[in-house]
Amino acid sequence: MKLPGKTVERLSEYRRTLLGCLEEKKNFIFSHELAARLHITAVQVRRDLMLIGYSSVLRKGYDVRELIETIGTIIDSEVTLNVTIIGIGNLGRAVAGYFRGKRSKLCLVASFDTDPHKVNKVISGVRCYPAPEMENIIRELDIRIAIITAPADSAREIAAEAVRCGIKGIMNFTTISLVVPSWVYLEEYDMITSIEKVAYFVKENKI
Amino acid sequence: MKLPGKTVERLSEYRRTLLGCLEEKKNFIFSHELAARLHITAVQVRRDLMLIGYSSVLRKGYDVRELIETIGTIIDSEVTLNVTIIGIGNLGRAVAGYFRGKRSKLCLVASFDTDPHKVNKVISGVRCYPAPEMENIIRELDIRIAIITAPADSAREIAAEAVRCGIKGIMNFTTISLVVPSWVYLEEYDMITSIEKVAYFVKENKI
Questions:
Q1: Distance (Å) of CA B72 to CA A202, B3, B65, B171, B186
Q2: Is A12 in CB contact (< 8 Å) with chain B?
């Protein structure tokens, strides 16, 4: 069963929130509590968990550890998926920081850059390779996912090259929309869109 | 008329794409071309533009400059909105980079940090103030929007302080979900959710 993208997003958010609960030593949570933390409805939470076959709600709520594990069996790969960051500037380094010790089934194994001051160094915990070596390294390290954090004007070229090298999923953080073949999964995020949305509602609220 | 959030997001994306067209010296665009660049349908594009009262489609498509201007009158504030970035690490610097010379109605006027090596310096084109001065600076510079790029464990405290200082809109890039009063607009983005979504579809496509 392939889940809708929005459901996968919410499952990922549930897990993140549940991991936060563990840090707070909170071992049980009700659907309405989980919902409130994510600004959605309890009905939505229950529907999503039903969809992945999770129904063991106790009197004191869901068992946080068990639910984290169940979500993992659904959204994580059984084998580790290797990831690369292309463009290790400020944004690339920020993304690299999120990987450290956090997602056991996603492994950041390489970054690429064209800057001679960066290549062949370990930056934010991951080795940076020269961009022209992309093909060799992607195949050698069996990298499946590319996160593009390079300057916008190089994004199309980089994506085409990544696809040619066998990348199967692309996360595009540049401000340019990409086009990829149907067998490659593409997700795009442009932070300016989110910031403009905030500005719009601040303006409309006349506050 | 207050537009739905998703419509505002798309209008922002249309503008970004149209600005890209100008750089390519493309002065006219059909709805289906704009739609294709954003992986949505032409019907969606036409519906959104109808909603904002734009209907002047010519034989050769929409006039790119005119459409950029129309979108601006809808989503931009008439007066400049001042913005701050709280936490000027890698992610904060990446966000600051996006502002430079790009959004005339959004002005990045200050950043805040607790690191003594950063405060009272200009970082990524914006002056970094010590976090304890937040209240004074936010009021003095009339800052309305705060972008939180600080470490997750300080996000709740920072948001509470920002709200107390009169911030009306928050863009939260940390991995912690926030709760804000009803008069503050909150938008949240966690990059790990997007990356986990890519991983899920790579896994499910068995590629």
A1: 15, 14, 11, 20, 21
A2: yes
